[in-house]
Design a protein that fits this description.
Strand content: 15-25%
Shape: globular
Radius of gyration: 29 Å
Number of helices: 22
Oligomer: single chain
Distance between the termini: 57 Å
Length: 677
C-alpha cells in the first residue's frame, strides 16, 4: 500500500461514512479519486481493491440499489458505510479492571502479539475508556514467545495459510519435512506447541517449537481453517508429561554446581554405578579430572540444549539420544562458526544502520491503522503535547507529523474548509475540532482480541488476581467488545505464570512493601559460583513462570536482576533499604543493565535465531540477503559467550571482536572432539 493509496483510502472512508443515501461510482471516481485517465475497467478494478481493503479493516461497504432504474447497472448503484460500522463498543472499566487489563496487555514482552496488545490498549485509550492505571510492584508477569518460529506461525494461523518446516521427530530422532495446517499455539509443561493437521501424516499432530530445525515457510497462496469449536488449551490438556529418566554424564571436577545440585542416585548404595556422597557414580571410571553424575530429565532435547552450552566441561555417557542431541547442536554451531563471513564491511553496515527497533518494520497499512486510532485519541485527549502523542503511538515526532499532514488534507469530497479534518499543533499542543465521524476507534482485530484475551486467561495462574472478581468481569467485557473476533482467541494459550517457590516471592514482596533490606545466597550459573549479597529490593517481575527480583546490589554497587529459583536463602537482614537507587525506568524491566565498560559484540543471526536480537537488547541491527541479520549487542561478561553460541546450535555466531570469535570456535571444537573420539 503506497502513501498515496493510504490517503485515497482515508478519503474514501470519510466519504462513505458521511453520506446518508450513498454515492455512485461515477461520483466517487470524480470527487475522491479525481480519475480522468484510466478506462472504466481499470478504475473498476482499483475501486474493488479499495473496497476489499476497507472490508479488511472491518468496515462493511453497503451497496444500495436503485430498483426503479435498473438494479444491475453499476451507474445507478450507490455505496455507503454505516456510521456504526466496525466501531469499538463502549467498554466501561473499574480501576481494578483497568489494572488487570494493562497487566494482560503487557504480558506479551514483544513480537506480533505484543504489538497487537499495545494497539488494543491504544484503541481503548482512544475511546476514553482506559485512563492510566498504576501497576502493582509485586505482580508484573510477562510471556516470552518462542523465537521467530512463533512469530511466523502466529501470522500463518491468523491468515489461515499452511506452513512448512523441518522437524526433529521424537519417535525416530531424524529431521523430517512437515507441511501443516496450523490451528493453534499453546504452552504446556514449559514448552510451546503447535497443533494442526499434518498433511504428510494425514492426521492431527502436536509439534514442539523447540524441535523445529529450520525457519517456517508460509504458503500464502493456499487457505485453511481450524475445525469448528477448536480450543488449543483443551487439546493440550490431553498431552501427558514425559516420564522421568536418568542421564549419566562426566563433569569436570569442581565445575557446574547447578548441574551437581540436581544429581540423583542411579542405584542403591554399594551397588555398581551407585552414587557417592559427592554426587559421583561408582563403576567404570570417568576420564581424569572428571566426576560421573546421574541427572534426572524428561526430554532429551531440553537437557541437550543445556548440556551443549557447557561445552567441553561435560560429556554425555548415556543415553545415546541425549548424546546425539548435544552433538548435533555442537556440530551445527561449529559449521556456522567456520562458514565464510558475510561479504560486508561491518563498520560501513552499522554506520548506515539505524538503532535497532523492536518489532517488525512499519508499513503504509500500519500508518492507516494508526491514523484511525489517532483521530479518536485526539478527540478524547485534547491539548496533549505532540511528543506525548508520538510516545503513546510508539512513533517519532517526524512520523506523527506526517500522519497529521495527511489527516488535515483529508475530508469530504470537494468539501469546504470546514468539511476537512481540522487539527492544529502550531504550539506543539495538538487539538482537533472536526473529526468527520472518525471519533471512535475501530473494533479489535483478530490479533488484538487474541492478545488481550489470551493474556487475561494466563493471569488466572496468579492467585492474587484469580481470587478477585476483576479478572472475570473484565474478561466478559472484553469478550463482548471483541465479538466474533474474540472467539478466535481459543487458538492461543499462554504458559503458567505462577512462581514455583511462592514463599520466596512472598518474602520479597513483603520486603518491597515495608522497605526492608534483604540478604540472599545466590547461585550464578555463568560464573559457576555461589555468593552472599545484601540487596535493596525494588520490584518483582516474571518471564513465563520464571520470576526475577530487581534490586540494588551493594556488592556490585548497581542494579541487578536475580532469578528467584537461583536464590538459595532469602531473609531480611534487619536494616532498611538505603535508597541508593530506584527501579530501572520503563516497563518491561530489562534483564541486562548496560554499563560503560561492557564489550560491544557483533553477532550474525540466522533467520531462525533473529529473535535473539530482541532478547539481548541489540543496539543496532542490519538485515542480510539470506533473511538473517547482523546485530550489535553489549555484554557485561564475555566469558559465557561460547556457552551462548553452543546453546543455540547454529543460529548465532560471533564475528567481532575476532579474539572472542576464535575463542568460541576453539571451545566448541573441543566440546565436539569429545564425541568424535
Amino acid at each position: 500500500m503506497s502513501a498515496s493509496r493510504t490517503e485515497r483510502l482515508l478519503n474514501l472512508l470519510i466519504a462513505l461514512l458521511n453520506t446518508q443515501y450513498g454515492l455512485r461510482r461515477s461520483e466517487l471516481r470524480q470527487k475522491v479519486y479525481h480519475d480522468t485517465t484510466s478506462n472504466d475497467v481499470s478504475f473498476g478494478r482499483m475501486f474493488e481493491r479499495d473496497k476489499s481493503e476497507l472490508r479488511r479493516f472491518g468496515f462493511e461497504v453497503e451497496t444500495v440499489l436503485d430498483l426503479g432504474w435498473g438494479s444491475d447497472d453499476p451507474a445507478t448503484t450507490r455505496y455507503r458505510i454505516g456510521k456504526e460500522s466496525n466501531r469499538l463498543p463502549d467498554v466501561s472499566l473499574t480501576p481494578e479492571e483497568r489494572t488487570v487489563l494493562i497487566l494482560a496487555a503487557q504480558l506479551w514482552e514483544q513480537a506480533a502479539l505484543g504489538s497487537a496488545a499495545l494497539n488494543a490498549v491504544r484503541k481503548l485509550r482512544a475511546a476514553g475508556e482506559l485512563p492510566d492505571a498504576e501497576l502493582p510492584a509485586g505482580v508484573q508477569p510477562r510471556i516470552r514467545p518462542a523465537g521467530q518460529a512463533f512469530e511466523d506461525l502466529v501470522a500463518a494461523i491468523h491468515a489461515q495459510h499452511p506452513a512448512g518446516f523441518r522437524y526433529l521427530a521424537g519417535s525416530t530422532g531424524k529431521e523430517e519435512e512437515r507441511l501443516v495446517e496450523p490451528w493453534g499455539l499453546g504452552s504446556r509443561f514449559g514448552q510451546w506447541y503447535l497443533v494442526g493437521q499434518d498433511r504428510t501424516r494425514g492426521a492431527k499432530r502436536f509439534f514442539r517449537l523447540s524441535r523445529l530445525t529450520s525457519a517456517v515457510t508460509i504458503l500464502d497462496k493456499e487457505s485453511t481453517a481450524a475445525p469448528a469449536g477448536f480450543n488449543v488449551r483443551a487439546e493440550l490438556a490431553g498431552l501427558h508429561e514425559l516420564p522421568v529418566r536418568s542421564a549419566v554424564v562426566d563433569v569436570q571436577a569442581g565445575r557446574l554446581l547447578g548441574l551437581r545440585k540436581r544429581a540423583t542416585a542411579a542405584a542403591p548404595a554399594g551397588a555398581p554405578g551407585a552414587e557417592r556422597v559427592d554426587g559421583s557414580v561408582a563403576g567404570a571410571p570417568p576420564g581424569a579430572g572428571r566426576d560421573r553424575l546421574t541427572v534426572p530429565f524428561r526430554d532429551a532435547e531440553t537437557l541437550g540444549e543445556e548440556l551443549a552450552s557447557y561445552g567441553p566441561r561435560v560429556l554425555v555417557v548415556s543415553p545415546p539420544e541425549l548424546a546425539t542431541a548435544v552433538r548435533r547442536r555442537l556440530a551445527a554451531a561449529a559449521r556456522f562458526a567456520a562458514a565464510p563471513a558475510p561479504a560486508v564491511a561491518l563498520a560501513e553496515v552499522f554506520r548506515q544502520a539505524s538503532p535497532a527497533k523492536r518489532g517488525r518494520k512499519r508499513t503504509s497499512e500500519d500508518q492507516l491503522k494508526r491514523m484511525l486510532q489517532l483521530v479518536p485519541f485526539l478527540v478524547h485527549n485534547q491539548g496533549l503535547h505532540i511528543s506525548e502523542v508520538a510516545a503513546t503511538f510508539g512513533v517519532t515526532r517526524k512520523e506523527l507529523e506526517e500522519d497529521l499532514r495527511i489527516l488535515i488534507c483529508s475530508g469530504l469530497p470537494e468539501g469546504y474548509p470546514d468539511e476537512l479534518l481540522d487539527i492544529q499543533w502550531d504550539d506543539d499542543h495538538v487539538f482537533i475540532s472536526q473529526d468527520l465521524e472518525l471519533n471512535r476507534p475501530v473494533r479489535f482485530t483478530v490479533e488484538e482480541a487474541c492478545a488481550l484475551l489470551t493474556g487475561l486467561e494466563t493471569l488466572n495462574g496468579l492467585p492474587e488476581l484469580a481470587e478477585g472478581s476483576a479478572l472475570e468481569s473484565v474478561t466478559l467485557k472484553l469478550m463482548a467488545a471483541a465479538g466474533k473476533e474474540g472467539l478466535k482467541a481459543a487458538s492461543f494459550s499462554g504458559p503458567e505464570v505462577g512462581p514455583e517457590n511462592s514463599a520466596t516471592l512472598a518474602t520479597a514482596r513483603e520486603a518491597i512493601r515495608t522497605g526492608a533490606q534483604l540478604r540472599l545466597t545466590y547461585f550464578s550459573p555463568q560464573r559457576d559460583t555461589v555468593s552472599e549479597r545484601d540487596v535493596d529490593p525494588l520490584r518483582l517481575y516474571s518471564l513465563d513462570n520464571t520470576w526475577y527480583l530487581e534490586a540494588y546490589c551493594h556488592s556490585a554497587r548497581g542494579l541487578r536482576n536475580f532469578r528467584l529459583d537461583r536464590i538459595e536463602t532469602l531473609q531480611p537482614n534487619g536494616r532498611p533499604v538505603s535508597r541508593a537507587a530506584g527501579p530501572a525506568d520503563g516497563f518491561p524491566v530489562k534483564l541486562f543493565t548496560p554499563n560503560d565498560d561492557d564489550t560491544l559484540v557483533v553477532v550474525e543471526l540466522t533467520r531462525r535465531g533473529a529473535g535473539l536480537a530482541d532478547d539481548y537488547y541489540a543496539e543496532r541491527t542490519a538485515a542480510l540477503p539470506d533473511g538473517g541479520m547482523l546485530a550489535e549487542i553489549r555484554f557485561g561478561s564475555t566469558d559465557w559467550l561460547p556457552m551462548f553460541v553452543a546453546q543455540h546450535g547454529g543460529a548465532v555466531r560471533i564475528l567481532a571482536p575476532v579474539a572472542l570469535a576464535e575463542a568460541a570456535r576453539e571451545w566448541i571444537d573441543a566440546a565436539l572432539a569429545q564425541y568424535e573420539d
